[in-house]
Amino acid sequence: PTMLELDGLETSDSLQGISLCPVFEDQTKQPREYALLSFTRFAINHDDWGEFYPIRCITDGRYKLAINLFDTDELYDILRDPYEMNNIIEDESASHHRNRLHDELLEEMNRIRDPFRSYLWGDRRWRSVRQPFYHGGKRRNQPAGFPFQPIGIEADGTMVGQSGKGESLTPPPHTTHHLSITHKSHS
C-alpha cells in the first residue's frame, strides 16, 4: 500500500497492509493502534523435526499477547517487563488488557482471512469466546458434483463419500471407477 500510494495508485482492500505515507509526513503519527505478528513454521528448535507450531501475536505497544496454538499462551507488560520474563496471562489484574488484545487479534485474523484461523484461537484455557463450528452449524458435506470430490470404494464395493458413511453414491458422469479384485487360492 505504501508503494502504491507513493506512485499515486489506489490500494486494493485485498491487501493486508496499510500505507505508511502519513508517517513519512509526520513521524509522531501512529498508523495503527495494534501490530499483528504471525509465525507459522515447523519446529522452532529444529526445522528437521517437522512439527507444526503456529503463533499469532498482537501488541498495542504496552501489552503483548502471543497465542501459541498448541502450547502455552503469553501476555507481557512490555513497559514493566521489557525482556518478557514474567508471563501474566493468568493474572486477573491484566485480564482486561489480555481480553481486549484477544478480541482485536481474532477480529484481525478474520478480516485478513488468516488461512490458519479456527475456533481454537478463541478457545483458550484462560478464556473461551469461540466454540467448534462449521458454517454456523453441524458439519455438512459439500454438495455432490464437484470434480474433485473424493469418493472411496470399500472392499465390498460400497462407495463412500465425504461423510464417511456407506451410502450408495453415483459417481459424477465424467468419472469412471473400476474395481478389480483377484483372489488366488492356495491349495
What features would you describe in this structure?
- With 187 residues, the protein is an alpha+beta fold.
- It has helices at 2-6, 21-25, 95-111; strands at 35-42, 52-59, 63-68, 74-77, 123-124, 127-128, 152-153, 159-160.
- The strands form 3 sheets. A 4-stranded antiparallel beta sheet has the order 1-2-3-4, covered by helices on one side. Strands 5-6 form a two-stranded antiparallel ribbon. The protein has a two-stranded antiparallel sheet with strand order 7-8.
- The longest helix is centred in the middle third of the chain and has 17 residues, at 95-111.
- The N and C termini lie far apart (76 Å).
- Residues 134-140, 162-166 and 174-182 have low confidence and may be disordered.
Give a quick precis of the structure.
The protein is of the alpha+beta class and 187 residues long. The protein has helices spanning 2-6, 21-25, 95-111; strands at residues 35-42, 52-59, 63-68, 74-77, 123-124, 127-128, 152-153, 159-160.
